[in-house]
Design goal:
single chain; 73% helix
Length: 500
C-alpha cells in the first residue's frame, strides 16, 4: 500500500466517522427531552454506555483479529443505524436492545479506528522515513478536526427539522416555568409544560429518516472506499499473541484489573469519572431542564451550536497552547471554567426573554470539556508509560462509568441535586489530581534539573527492572492509538509525550 493510498484511507475514515456522528450525536443530545416517558431516554442511554464500557474489555481485539479492521468498522456502523431507527418507534422493547447493540458497536468502532490509524501511521512513517509517533499525531489531529465539527452539523439538522413551534397552544408564563424548570426541575414536575411536548410522529420520522440516510451513506463509504489492512501488516501485529480466544480475553481482563492496584490510577478515578459525568450533564440535564423546559425541544440544537463551535476550536488550539504551559495549568483552567459554569447555573435566573444566555453559558463547559478529553489521555500516557493498553482500558472504563452514573439517577433526582453531586466530583477529583501532580513532580524534579527539555520518567512497574523511558517535552505525540492496538513500548524506547 502506497503512501498516497494510506493517506486516502485516513481521510475516508474521517469522512464516514464525520457523517455517522452527525446522525448519532444529533439524536443522542435529544434523548432526555425526546423520550421523557418513564425516563426512557436517559435510562436507555445509561444502558448503552454500560454496554460500551463492558464491551471495550472483550470485543474489539477479538473482532479485529478474526474479522479484520475494515469490516469491523463497517459492521459497527450498522449498529448505529439500528439505534437511529429504534428512535422512530421508541418503546422499551426497541430502545433497550438497540442501545445494547449500539454500545457494543461503539466499542468496536472506536477501538478499531485507533488500531487502524496506528498500523497505517507506522507503515506510512516507515515509507517516508519519519517518526511514527509524529505521523500518528498528524493522523489523529486530522481525525479530530473532522470529528469535533459533527455536533455543529447535527444540531443544525435537528433544529431545522424540529423548528416547528406548536400553534394554538397556551405557553406557560416565565414565573410558571421558573417553578418547573432549571434547578427546580424534579421528577414529575412541570407536567403542564407544553414546551416538553414531544414532536409529532411525522416530524420525528422526518428527523430519524434524515439521520438514517446520513448513516447509510457513511456505511456505503466505509464498504466501498476503505482498504483492508494488508494481511502481512495485520499478522505482524498479532505475531506474539495467543490464537486461543479464551486466553486473549483472560489476558485483556487481567491486565486491566491488575492495573487498578496502582495508587496513581486510584487517585485519578474521581476526575476520570467526572469527565464522563460533566458531558452527560450538559447533553442530558442542561438540554432538558434549561433549554427544552424554558424554550422548547425545538431550540436544543440551536443552543448547542455555539458551544459546539467553542469545543471544536478549543480542541484544535489546546494542543498548541499546552506545549508552552504544560498539562497541569491546562487542568487548572478547565477546573475554573467548569466551576464558573456550575456556579452560574446555581445563581442564574433564566428568562425566556433573554435567550442569548441559553446559548452562551454552556460554552464555559465545552471549553473545559475540550481540555479534559484531550489532556486526560496525555496524562494517563505520562503516568503509565509502560502500560499503555491497561491504562487506557481503565481510562475508558471509568469515564464510561461517569456517563452511566449521571444517566442512571437522571430520572430520580432534582437538577439541583445532580448539579451539587457534579460539583462534589469536580472538587474531589481536582484535589486528588493535585496530589498526583505533587507526587509526580517530586519524583521527576532531580532528573529535570539534569536534562531539560526532556525528562526521564520511571514507571512504578519497572523500577526494579531498571527500565528507563525518556519522554520529550516538545512533541504532542501521545495519543490513544498505540493503546487501541495493544502496542506497548519496550525498555529504553523513546516515548514522545508532554510534561506535566
Amino acid at each position: 500500500m502506497t503512501e498516497k493510498r494510506i493517506f486516502k484511507n485516513v481521510l475516508v475514515i474521517c469522512t464516514f466517522f464525520f457523517l455517522n456522528f452527525i446522525s448519532y450525536g444529533g439524536l443522542a443530545s435529544l434523548q432526555s427531552s425526546l423520550h421523557l416517558e418513564e425516563g426512557m431516554g436517559v435510562i436507555t442511554s445509561a444502558i448503552g454506555f454500560a454496554s460500551l464500557a463492558l464491551s471495550c474489555l472483550l470485543l474489539p481485539k477479538i473482532a479485529m483479529r478474526f474479522i479484520g479492521h475494515k469490516w469491523v468498522m463497517s459492521i459497527s456502523l450498522i449498529g448505529y443505524i439500528f439505534w437511529m431507527a429504534a428512535n422512530g418507534y421508541a418503546v422499551w422493547a426497541t430502545m433497550i436492545p438497540a442501545s445494547i447493540v449500539c454500545g457494543m458497536c461503539g466499542a468496536t468502532l472506536w477501538t478499531t479506528q485507533g488500531a487502524y490509524f496506528a498500523i497505517m501511521a507506522k507503515h506510512y512513517a516507515a515509507k517516508k522515513g519519519q517518526d511514527p509517533r509524529a505521523v500518528t499525531a498528524l493522523f489523529f489531529g486530522i481525525f479530530f478536526a473532522f470529528f469535533r465539527t459533527t455536533a455543529v452539523f447535527g444540531s443544525i439538522i435537528s433544529s431545522t427539522i424540529l423548528n416547528q413551534k406548536p400553534e394554538n397552544q397556551t405557553q406557560p408564563s416565565n414565573e410558571q416555568l421558573s417553578q418547573w424548570c432549571g434547578l427546580n426541575d424534579c421528577p414529575n414536575s412541570g407536567s403542564n409544560n407544553t414546551n416538553l411536548s414531544s414532536p409529532s410522529s411525522t416530524t420525528l420520522w422526518t428527523l430519524v429518516g434524515v439521520y438514517i440516510g446520513i448513516g447509510v451513506l457513511a456505511f456505503i463509504i466505509s464498504v466501498v472506499f476503505v482498504d483492508a489492512v494488508p494481511a502481512d501488516w495485520a499478522a505482524a501485529e498479532y505475531q506474539n499473541e495467543s490464537k486461543d480466544m479464551g486466553k486473549m480475553i483472560a489476558k485483556s481482563l487481567m491486565a486491566t484489573v491488575l492495573h487498578m492496584r496502582h495508587l496513581r490510577l486510584l487517585l485519578l478515578i474521581p476526575i476520570t469519572v467526572y469527565t464522563g459525568m460533566e458531558q452527560t450533564f450538559r447533553d442530558a440535564e442542561y438540554t432538558k431542564s434549561f433549554v427544552s423546559c424554558f424554550l422548547g425541544i425545538w431550540m436544543i440544537g440551536w443552543c448547542l451550536i455555539p458551544s459546539s463551535v467553542v469545543n471544536a476550536v478549543a480542541s484544535l488550539l489546546g494542543g498548541r497552547i499546552m506545549k508552552y504551559t504544560g498539562l497541569f495549568p491546562m487542568f487548572c483552567f478547565a477546573f475554573c471554567m467548569d466551576l464558573a459554569y456550575q456556579v452560574t447555573l446555581i445563581f442564574w435566573e433564566p428568562s425566556v426573554n433573554e435567550e442569548h444566555w441559553f446559548f452562551l453559558i454552556p460554552c464555559l463547559n465545552t471549553l473545559a470539556d475540550a481540555i479534559w478529553l484531550a489532556q486526560m489521555s496525555a496524562l494517563y500516557g505520562i503516568l503509565f508509560p509502560t502500560k499503555f493498553a491497561a491504562a487506557f482500558s481503565n481510562y475508558n472504563f471509568w469515564k464510561s462509568c461517569g456517563n452511566i452514573i449521571e444517566f442512571a439517577y437522571s430520572s430520580y433526582l432534582c437538577t439541583s441535586v445532580k448539579l451539587y453531586i457534579l460539583m462534589g466530583f469536580l472538587g474531589l477529583g481536582m484535589a486528588l489530581l493535585i496530589i498526583v501532580y505533587v507526587k509526580y513532580m517530586r519524583q521527576t524534579r532531580p532528573v529535570e534539573k539534569q536534562a531539560l527539555p526532556s525528562a526521564t520518567v520511571v514507571d512504578d512497574d519497572v523500577k526494579d527492572k531498571q527500565d528507563v523511558f525518556t519522554v520529550g517535552s516538545e512533541n504532542a505525540g501521545f495519543t490513544g492509538s498505540a493503546v487501541m492496538d495493544g502496542v506497548e513500548p519496550r525498555a529504553h524506547e523513546t516515548v514522545s509525550i508532554y510534561r506535566l
